[in-house]
Structures are given as C-alpha cells and as structure tokens.
Amino acid sequence: MGLKAPPDQDVVVVGASGDLSARKLLPALYNLSAEGLLPRRGSIVGAAPVDMDDAAFVDFARDSVHKYSRTKPTATALDAFCKRLRFVRLDPKAALRDLRAALKRPRRVVYLAVPPSAFETLILQLGAADLGAGTSLIIEKPFGHDLASARKLNRTIHTVLPEQRIFRIDHYLGKETVQNLLIFRFGNSVFERIWNRDAIARVEITVAESLGVEHRGAFYEQTGAIRDIVQNHVFQVVAITAMEPPVSFDAEAISNEKVKVLRALQPLDPAAVVRGQYTAGTISGQPVAGYRSEPGVDPKSTTETYAAMRLRIDSWRWSGVPFFVRTGKRMAIRDTRIVITFREVPLHLFAGTGVSAVDSNRLVVRIQPDEGIAVTFVAKVPGPEVTIQPVNMNFTYGSAFKTSPPEAYERLLHDALDGDHTLFIREDEVERGWAVVQPVLDQPPPIVRYGAGSWGPKAADALVAPLHWHEPGEGDGL
Ligand code: BG6
Questions:
Q1: Is residue 42 part of a domain?
Q2: Nearest residue (CA) to ligand 1, atom 13
Q3: Could you tell me if residue 145 is inside a domain?
Q4: Relative to the CA of 232, which of 70, 93, 352, 421 has its CA 20 to 30 Å away?
Q5: What is the DSSP string of 253-298?
Q6: What pLDDT does 101 receive?
Q7: pLDDT-above-70 percentage for the chain
C-alpha cells in the first residue's frame, strides 16, 4: 500500500461482539497488524454490553480472522495481533465510564459499530465520560435517516468533537476501483477532455446484489435501498464520476469538488423513481424467499429492496446528460458498474452494416466483481465486405497487477488512525445527499414487485426508454 504505521494510539470498537466487527473490522485490523500498519504502540479495545472477558474476546477475534480475513492468517502474526486485544463489558447504566478506565493512552480512535439508533446516545456518553479530548470518531452509515435527523446528529457530534476528528465512513470509498476513478480521470490526459456533455450521452450506475437482506431484516425494514445504498454509496460514486478536477489531492480539495456535484444534483422527482420489492424466485439454481417472508420483515412491508431513478446534474459540464441509477437486492448477479455511453458519430457512413445506436462507444468501469475497465469501439470485421462490429479494450486488475484489490475497511481504518480524511464524508456532503433523496422519502412512489433473480421490475425500463439498461456482458470486456 505504500502506507506507514499511524501514530501511537488505542483503537476502540464499540459493538465489538457484533457482525460488522466479526466480518470486517477484526479481520481488517489483523491484516493491518500483519503488515505493520497499526500504531506501533496501542491496544485494540473491544467494548459491548455482553458477557465477555479478554480471553473470550481473543477467541472471538481469532475465529473471525480465520473465517473472514482477506489473507490466510499466520500463527505468529495472529498471536502478535491477539496480544493487543482487550475487552470492556459495557454496563448501559455506567455510560462508558468503564471504557474510560480501560484506556491508557492520550489518543484513540473510537469506531461505533452499532445500530444507527444508538449513535446519538453513545456520542453524548463519550462527552459525559470526558473522552472527547483525544478521541477521533469513526461512524458508520446510514448517518441519520433523513435530512432533519442527519442535521441533528451532526449538531450533537459537534458538541463533543470538532469536524476534523469525525470520520463518516462509506466503505465504497475504500474500494480500490472507486479510488481508481480519480486516477483514471485525472491521471490520464485522454479521458478528461471528453468527460462532459459534448461527448457523453448518458451515464448509468448499477449496484446489484444477489444476496437478500439475510439476518438484517429488522434493520432493513427501517432503511430500504434508498437510505442503504443510494444516499451514500451511489451518490459518492456519482460525485467522483462527475466532479471537476480538484486543486490538489488532499481531503478538503476533494470534498469541495464532490459537494459541488451534490449541490448541482437536483432533488429527486418521485415521478422519476421506481421502488421495487423482491418476491420469491431462483438465484443460481436455488429457490429463495420473497422479502416479505424474510425474518424480521413485516408481511405487508412497503420497504423498497430495489430503486431505480433518473438523476439530473445541473452543472456546466453535465447539463442535459441523464445519470441513471439502479440498485437492488436479490438481483440476478452481484455486479457494480458505471457505464458511460458516448454520443453517436454525427453521420452513419456505414448505414446498413448492422451498427446501430446501441453500439456507440462505451466505457464500462467494473467496480466489482471482475474489477477492471473496458472501452468499446467498432472495428471492421476482416473480409472483402465492409462489416463492422463492436470490440473491447479491456483492463482487469487480476491480470494487470496479479492481485485482487485489498479490503476497503483496511484502508479506511488505517487512514482514520492516521488522521487522513480523503476517503471520508464531510458534514455538508452527507446533508446534501439527504436533501436530494428527501422528496422521495416524503412521497414514496408505490412499491412494484420483481422476482428474485431477475434484473428488477419492468417499470424501471420505462425510465430509460427508448433505450434499455445496460446488460452485463454487453461490451464490458468479460
Ligand atoms: C452496505 C449495505 O453498506 O453495503 C448492505 O448496508 C450492502 O446492505 C453492502 O449489502 C454492499 O457492500 P458491497 O461492498 O458488497 O458492495
């Protein structure tokens, strides 16, 4: 990674016995430790209101590392990691005072790996336990559940901590392929000059998951796809795709440009939004249940598991270029991509050769899986006749770098420990994201159904008509 060990400090994971801690945080901390990228001195303190002690927490951590680590753990590295682990059992009545007693260093990062409903109380408790000074806070999404609650949460946090010590996490920013968008756009001279309304006809962003809501039904009922994916992950991808070149590569310069895009992004028109919910179906040959039958879900639920929309960015660069977005659970495959379709040639010199409007030049950024970038252009099919056909130039991470991208959480945890905000979300970005989706939260369009294993409800096709949503496999280099 070319990174260095951050300054000495403790790492506190509040909610250490939970799912996020087991699947992502402990394995990420282990890998940082194994690569020498944790502070040289400092404990990793797990905290949760459960019956655990240091030894039980070490067992829990070992188990999560074995199950979920990106790299196969070695005994030496795992032992060294486990030596740093401590556990504090939180008594809800003691309001984090026990945590304070367990912290020996003047500086620490506190990760709130807890349900969003607990954020405010815990932040106030941090202040009351006199832990504000010396603490940086990492806070998970969703940050608030609408504009008013996000503003309130920002105000509450600021009574305890200044903005420079708040790290609002969006793990999409930790993905190599999302960071690479900045390099792709601003490190190459060929693309930026055609990255605008003169050359680009439309942009399409798909975040498709084949997984359902799994055991998170109760959480998801209060969230839905717009709050879970669109307001944060998708808007961050839109902002990086559409932003102007920043004056430098530092956090403030990048956030300034992202927020300009979000300001130009017009509040959603509910008529240009489709909300869907999956019914029973089949994925990879396996029957799967419908959303309303998932554990923790209301059998009459109107929470959306799919959302598609047309976004409008009223800026000099993008005026008139539609940005189409769709995201859903229980879709046919897991696939996150950005598809940039360029304008057609001004004159079809080869009319009658089978090349139509859908064969315009296209650039597909495959965020995951099969990370890479493909450019589609047409070529002459060898032979005496003039027959042309789309072909691809394709870059894949696997073959170019002989490695798969590291876990997003490793990079993000390291950067927060190092005080670097570049890959985190600033207060104004998060609030503007909510302002854009607020009209749909206020007046949600009715839910339409789609079968699990499909590409979402038919109603979403009308949004992009007379064209069609990009099909995976269509000029994507795969
Ligand atoms: C999380 C959402 O933020 O992102 C989940 O809460 C979703 O519902 C996940 O499954 C998707 O992340 P990724 O990295 O698999 O695209």
A1: yes
A2: 172
A3: no
A4: 70
A5: HHHHHHHHHHHHBPPPPGGGEEEEEEESEEETTEEE--GGGSTT--
A6: 84
A7: 97
